[in-house]
Amino acid sequence: VQLQASGGGLVQAGGSLRLSCAYSGRTFTNYSWAWFRQVPGKEREFVAAISWRNTNRLYTDSVQGRFTISRNNAENTLYLHMNSLKPADTGVYYCAADRSAIQTMRRATSIDYWGKGTQVTVSS
Fold first, then answer.
1. Are 22 and 77 in contact (CB under 8 A)?
2. Rounded-to-integer distance, Cα 38 and Cα 29, Å
3. What is the DSSP track for the chain?
4. Which of 8, 45, 92, 106 would bridge with 117, disulfide CB 3.0–4.6 Å?
5. Which residues contact 12 (CB under 8 A, 6 or more apart)?
6. Quick check: 110 pLDDT over 90?
7. What are the pLDDT digits (tens) for 14-55?
């Protein structure tokens, strides 16, 4: 199983980025998907999640209205569209897949699959 995140980079505050997470290696039926982020010295933080049917989404309060999580089943790719970026959004972003519901997945206590991170840096 492979989850490959990409799309990070350096952007000025107020800018936008789109992260992608291409996944392969198995069929992910009934899996929820999520993005987390982490900065040095802090725990990994939940950002957004989407249910396996793409019907329900969940966001942490700080990104609500600015970020959008989506998934293209045909392309086996998870996305995170990030607008109005702030320096506080800086971190390494990880995609994840898990069999639990998105409300449970946000706690990140036991995630089935993690992707390698992609660095997002927002300058002020």
1. yes
2. 27
3. -EEEEE--EEEETT--EEEEEEEESS--TT-EEEEEEE-TTS--EEEEEE-TTS--EEE-GGGTTTEEEEEETTTTEEEEEE-S--GGG-EEEEEEEESS-HHHHTT-SS-SEEPBPEEEEEE-
4. 92
5. 122, 123
6. no
7. 999 999 999 999 999 899 999 999 999 999 999 999 999 999
The span from the CA of 121 to the CA of 42, in Å, is 16
Tens digits of per-residue pLDDT, 77-94?
999 999 999 999 999 999
User: How far apart, in Å, are the Cα atoms of 56 and each of 35, 86, 103?
Assistant: 14, 25, 10
User: What's the full length of the chain, in residues?
Assistant: 124
